[in-house]
């Protein structure tokens, strides 16, 4: 039976207990052998597989890189945003885990049903606001006292930042994020049932000297139509689409218009470097090619046809005799 995956804090606690002598390795082994029953909470139903969670992690790692660049340009200061964790939990647990007074952007993501939440820790939010208004990036905690001007600045900033989510999600779905409302009290959110499963992507955020978390909450109802797109098979399959007849015809026409260098080789000769250095105007170079033999026509650097020289009007020309055998006729 596969064991549970321990968090970093649990690993640190075990190592500390062993190092202080409170617990030995034999005690841990004995406890593991005795504990064969695992408690399962049916209210915390796991709706997404590990494979699908990994796909969501990849998508939002790309999103984190995009908004790092976006916020760095907007705030004109050092910004670093990375994915800290991706978990599936009940919506009620997510609401309890965030501060009582915080900044919550509610977004619609048509054509998908439901809303996505972006919760920004007040320290981060006020640091951003201070930078946008020309300050040094100092942080405050009176998020419940936002003025209309401050609210407008913040909503504009985060509404534009969600354009990066559209780009990050292109590999799994085409969405058009739109800001619905800005909320500061999570208790007023009546978005979905408290027991509904949500995916929470936690982004570790550093802005100048201030650090905090940005949490993106995606309900299962939003992801349900595109769950098949989160599989490894979908990521591995080719995204090549068949061209329409009009596109095929246009491509064929453009290919026919492409110009190719065509040259005729009169013959070859081998001389010494000394003869080459003293070569002057009027000197004659004897070719290895007999005068009555066909010449070689090349398309680019590839020999394609044997030809014979002649004239068309007052211009030199060649007449094709036959394709060169082994001359890559199909190319």
Automatic annotation (TrEMBL):
It comes from the Bacteria. One of its GO terms (cellular component) is bacterial-type flagellum basal body. Transmembrane segments: none annotated. One of its GO terms (biological process) is bacterial-type flagellum-dependent swarming motility. It is found in: Bacterial flagellum basal body; Cell membrane. InterPro entries: CheC-like_sf (IPR028976), Flag_FliM (IPR001689), FliN-like_C (IPR001543), SpoA-like_sf (IPR036429). Residues 255-324 form the Flagellar motor switch protein FliN-like C-terminal domain. GO terms for molecular function: cytoskeletal motor activity. Keywords: Bacterial flagellum, Cell membrane, Cell projection, Chemotaxis, Cilium, Flagellar rotation, Flagellum, Membrane. It is a peripheral membrane protein. Belongs to the FliM family. This is Flagellar motor switch protein FliM.
């Amino acid at each position: 039976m596969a064991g549970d995956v321990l968090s970093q804090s649990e690993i640190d606690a075990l190592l500390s207990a062993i190092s202080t002598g409170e617990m030995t390795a034999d005690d841990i082994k004995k406890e593991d052998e005795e504990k064969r029953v695992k408690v399962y909470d049916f209210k915390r139903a796991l709706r997404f597989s590990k494979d699908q969670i990994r796909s969501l992690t990849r998508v939002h790692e790309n999103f984190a890189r995009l908004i790092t660049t976006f916020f760095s340009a907007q705030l004109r200061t050092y910004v670093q945003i990375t994915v800290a964790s991706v978990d599936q939990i009940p919506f009620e647990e997510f609401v309890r885990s965030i501060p009582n007074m915080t900044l919550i952007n509610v977004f619609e993501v048509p054509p998908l049903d439901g809303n996505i939440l972006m919760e920004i820790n007040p320290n981060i939010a006020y640091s951003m606001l201070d930078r946008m208004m020309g300050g040094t990036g100092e942080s405050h905690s009176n998020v419940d006292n936002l003025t209309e001007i401050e609210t407008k600045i913040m909503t504009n900033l985060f509404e534009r930042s969600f354009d990066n989510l559209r780009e990050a999600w292109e590999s799994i779905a085409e969405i058009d994020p739109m800001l619905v409302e800005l909320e500061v009290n999570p208790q007023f959110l009546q978005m979905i049932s408290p027991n509904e499963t949500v995916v929470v992507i936690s982004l570790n955020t550093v802005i100048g000297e201030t650090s905090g978390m940005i949490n993106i909450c995606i309900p299962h109802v939003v992801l349900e139509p595109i769950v098949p797109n989160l599989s490894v098979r979908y990521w591995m399959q080719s995204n090549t689409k068949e061209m329409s007849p009009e596109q095929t015809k246009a491509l064929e026409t453009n290919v026919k218009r492409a110009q190719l260098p065509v040259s005729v080789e009169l013959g070859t000769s081998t001389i010494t470097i000394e003869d080459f250095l003293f070569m002057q105007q009027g000197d004659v170079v004897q070719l290895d090619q007999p005068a009555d033999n066909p010449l070689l026509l090349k398309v680019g650097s590839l020999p394609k046809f044997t030809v014979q020289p002649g004239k068309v009007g007052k211009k030199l020309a060649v007449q094709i005799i036959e394709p060169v055998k082994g001359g890559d006729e199909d190319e």
